[in-house]
Every structure is written in structure tokens, then in C-alpha cells.
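FAQ: What does the model actually see?

It sees only this:
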Amino acid sequence: MQRFPVLRAIVFSLATALIVVVGSERMYWYYADVDLESTAVLTAFYAVAVSVLLWLVDRFQTTGFWSFLLAVPAFGWIVEGVVTPILYSGGPVPFFPLWFTGWHGLLAVVVLWWGVRLLLVEDRRAALAGLSVVVGAFWGTWATTMWLPENLDDPELAESLPAVRSPGDFARFAALASLTLVVGHVVADRTWIVRLPRSRPIGLAVIGYCGLMVIAWTLVYWWAAPMMAVLLGWLCFGLRRRRPVVAKPTLARLAGSVSPAAYLGLAPLPVTAAAVYAGWFAVDLGVGTIRVIHYGTIAVQTVAAAVLLTMAWRRSGANAKASVPDAAPTVEADDGSLPSSRVR
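And it is asked to produce this:
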């Protein structure tokens, strides 16, 4: 596939989309089964948002955590503002953009794609196992929010036949979703790219699709197009004003071979999720407690997104030296990067 860089980039984008689908969809709507058809459809749609994210990361050559974080919100905004119009349904206010940055951006992209990949490449199995336990505990707890009457009886979700899964059934679901995550990372590892190849047809297709859908949603919500323009413009301005640092760009830093044994660090993910879910199932949480979990999670994610984006914006203008893409991954403190990588 080395001879066909565009094809390689397409497969890499689809693999990345498969990874984020687990965080954005499978961990959110736990009663929708994991099957090949739905996974393929979701991956295809999410690949559009992934393409925009990867373009920003490559175009502006993000490096450490903070500069990468400036590009991350675009993923959630394209998912919820192009594929669906939910981004605009709350009005031209920042609540949904921040919440979707929290769920789609921080969970699906930063944790399950960037974070997991970094730990895999560095072969930090204990750290990856610890991360898997934390995410699994969150997953098993969040899944209880689907027990709320308003979710089970929601007419818009009737086609998915929402129902309370038994602990055993949820364990099967968590195992399949986690296997999907592993497959996505394996394929991404085999097709990893450090720079996006130029492809005018694909670029025009993505831009055309996004533009047409935003125009369509503007017919329903008049503020859709201006809102999307302001949001993406804000991100691009922040990325453009960012001063380069002495560090490898994001895609180059995450490049490297992954040991097959390293993927064992993800094994605790479905086990922990299933165990926590079973525990809450046995306790039989009350509706009031579940609502606290539901709205508390949304509040924490929204506030976290606001704080982190504010910090990323402030750091984007920090003075630093000129970028050296091929230099060793020495990271300056101002950029917020993790300790130097052991990329092989």
C-alpha cells in the first residue's frame, strides 16, 4: 500500500473512524447492537469528521497535547453539525459545542485514539491497563443512564428497540465494542501516515458534502451556517496563531511499530465495564441517582471542555522556538506534551 498513498490515507482515516465510533456511539448508545452493517455505516459517516480533524492536524502541524487539543473540537462539531443538526438545536450558544467537545473530542479522540495510540507505541502496558480500567468504570456507570424512562420511551429511538440489558448481555456488547476498538488500532497501526497526501477529488468531496449539509440545516436553523463558520474559524485562527515548538508533529510522534502484546493493555476495558455495570444492576439504582449520573456527566464534560480549550487557546500564543519536524521529540513545558516518546 506504500505505492498508493491516497488509498493508504483512506484506510487510515477509516480505521481512525472505527476507533472513535466506539467512543462516540458504542459507549453512548449501549442498546444498539454491534454488528457489521451498523458499524460500517457509522464508520463511513464518521470518516468525514475524521478527515477534517486529520486535515487540521496535518495542515497546522500540531505537536504536543495543547496544540492538538485545539484541532480536536472540529471532529465533534462536524459529527453533530454536518452529519446531524444537533449542534444547532440548542440555539447559537456554546453549550452543545462544548459538550460535544467533551464527549466526541476528549473521550473518543483524545483518550481512545490519541491516548491509547501513544501508550501502545511507547509500549506502556501498565499505563494502558490503568486507562482501560478508568474508561471501563466510566462506561459501565454511564450505561445506567439508558435505564431512564425518557430514554427507554423516546419515540425517536424506537427503531433501536431500547431496553435494559442484562449484565451478561451488556458484557457481550462491551466485548464486541472493545474488539472493534482493537481492530481499529491494529489497522491504523498498519497504515499509519505522518503526512496526508494531497488529493483534490477527496478534498472537494469532503468540503462539498459538509457545505451542502450545513446549508441544508440552515434552512431549519437560520444560525447553522454562521455558527459553524464562527466555530471553525475560531479553531483555525487559534491554530494559525500558534507558535511552533521543538517537537515532532502529532502524526509523526505517534508513528512507530506496536508490539502485539501491547494490545493486552486494553483487555481490562470490557471486563471493568461489564463488572461495574453488573454491580449497578444488582444495586438497582433509583431514577433520581441515575439522573444525577446523567446530568453530572454532561456538566463535568462541558466544564472540562471549556477549561481545557481556554488553556489551549492561551498556550497557543506562547512564545517558542521554530518547529523542527524531524527533530527528536523533545517537548517544551509550555506545549503541555507528555515526556519524550520511545518511538521505535
